[in-house]
Write a structure and sequence with these properties.
The protein is α+β, with helices and mostly antiparallel strands. It is built from 2 helices and 10 strands.
Length: about 190
Amino acid sequence: MNMRKGLNDAVLCLMIITATLLIINHRQSPTYVMALAQDVENNTIAVNNSMNSMLGELIYESSGKIVSQKVVDTGDIYYPSAKVELSYSGSGYMQGIGNVTETWTFVNTHLKNNITQGIGKGVIMTDDGNGIATATELGRGFHLSPETMVYPGARVFSVDSNSKLAFLNELVGVTQWEVDSLGNYKTKMWQWK
C-alpha cells in the first residue's frame, strides 16, 4: 500500500512539474500546439484537431455548464490579478466504460494578455455507481474568440484499485477544454504516451 502511495505521489509530482513547464513555455509545448493553431497572418487562433505524436487515443469526451462562480482574490494595487473559483457539472463518455458524470472546481487566475491559468479538482463517476475517480488538473486558457476560451491542460487521477476506473491510475491525461461566454463547456482527454 505504501509503495502504491509513493508511486501516486511521484506521478503527481511529475505531472505538476510537467504542467508547470508547459505553462511557463506554453508557446513551445506540444500541449499548446495540440490545442491551438495560430494564423499569424490573419491574427486568429483556431482549435487544432490534428493528433500530436505525444498523444495516444482520445479516451474521454464530456460537456456541461458552469454552475457557480465566486471571486477568491483581486490581487493588490501593485499587481492586480483576479482569482475566480468556478464549479462545472456535466456528463460524458469514457472509452471502454460508457457514460459518466463529472463535477469540477477550478481556481483560475486571470493574468495579463487575457491568459488564464487554473488548477482544478474533479470527480468522475460511472452511471452505474461502480466507479469513482478523483482528479487534479493544471491548465492555461487562451482566447479562441471574444466568446470562447480554450484551455489545454494535464490531468492525473486517484482511483480505488477495485473500481471500474482503476486504469486511470496508470495514465496522465492531456486535456483540451473549450468554454463559451454562456458558461457551456466541452472537453476532450487523450492519454499521454
